[in-house]
Design brief:
316 residues, alpha+beta, 2 domains, eight-stranded antiparallel sheet, four-stranded antiparallel sheet, 14% helix, globular, disordered N terminus
Length: 316
């Protein structure tokens, strides 16, 4: 009988240096959005990619990496930091800056349906458009990683190897370089619309004035929503109507770990930010009801075969 070994609530440190940038000590899982911001495969740095179906290989032409760190010792799991790295040369990336370390929850079972399982877990992230140079179009790959050199990658729209399906492309040209209204700008816009409404009330009576006030309300809401498209909360309500720009084969993590098994990737943007959503099969966490504190294993040591000790339990 297979012995299931479990470790108590601890933060598992993973040294991540696979993409060639400075190693980061992280708890749990790392997800990377690797961006070819000039859409030119002949410039930039190279990264190493592989999973259960795609053999180890180098892919080049990438200028920046958005790294999203998820800690499964929270209940639910939590995005704890986003960092942006830039290409130096060869396979070397250096930290540009920490984008956000305020933290927000992973959307547990809030993602796309997974065959023979519950819905996927949702990891949300964003980066300022100014930080990546307001690209009109960029090529993207998604990398998910955990312990023991495990990895899963999404390189094409169907999860197949390069050349077998179109690459992941994100077109941002429709709203490129459009400035956001500041708080003062929003207030001035509201005052202008209020003036229009007041004039309408005096000149055309209550019916037209009411319509003008309604226009004011709608206009103010529209400007505000335009300036904050996606809320970092793990929910998918604000992603309604946005299809994935890539889907992956389920079960193709290189070591069979659900937390790094990419299912789908989404992206959208407003004039100030680009938003990403990565759906993965399942991120195990300490509040998922399967902990057995009477058993234990060494953190980072293989339990049995494809099992890995992470956070607070071993999982297949």
């Amino acid at each position: 009988m297979r012995m299931r070994r479990v470790v108590g609530i601890v933060a598992v440190a993973i040294l991540v240096a696979k993409a060639g940038h400075a190693a980061a000590s992280i708890p749990g899982f790392a997800y990377r959005v690797v961006m070819d911001t000039d859409n030119n495969p002949n410039t930039g740095c190279s990264v190493s990619v592989h999973d259960a179906n795609i053999p180890l290989q180098m892919m080049g032409g990438f200028e920046q990496i958005l790294e999203i760190l998820v800690d499964p010792t929270f209940t639910p799991p939590r995005v704890v930091k986003e960092s942006l790295f830039h290409c130096v040369s060869g396979t070397n990336f250096a930290l540009t800056q920490v984008v956000d370390n305020s933290g927000w929850p992973v959307g547990v079972n809030d993602g796309v349906p997974v065959p023979s399982a519950s819905n996927a877990d949702v990891i949300e992230a964003y980066v300022g458009r100014a930080l990546i140079g307001y690209p009109a179009t960029m090529r993207i790959i998604i990398i998910a990683e955990t312990l023991l050199d495990g990895t899963d990658v999404l390189l094409t729209t169907t999860g197949d190897a390069p050349g077998m399906a179109p690459p992941l492309q994100l077109n941002l040209s429709g709203i490129n370089n459009v400035p956001l209204l500041s708080g003062v700008g929003l207030a001035l816009a509201a005052l202008v619309l209020s003036g229009v409404a007041a004039v309408s009330l005096r000149r055309r009576g209550a019916t037209y004035g009411t319509a003008a006030l309604a226009l004011l309300a709608v206009g103010t809401v529209a400007v505000t929503a335009w300036a904050a498209t996606i809320i970092m909360d793990g929910g998918t309500g604000d992603w309604t109507g946005i299809p994935p720009f890539g889907t992956d084969l389920v079960g193709d993590s290189s070591i069979g770990v659900d937390g790094e098994d990419i299912v789908a990737a989404f992206a959208t943007s407003d004039p100030g930010k680009v938003y990403f959503r990565i759906d993965v099969k399942n991120i195990p966490f300490c509040g998922d009801g399967v902990i057995d504190p009477g058993e234990g294993c060494e953190v980072g040591i293989p339990c049995e075969f494809t099992e890995v000790c992470t956070a607070c339990r071993c999982f297949d």
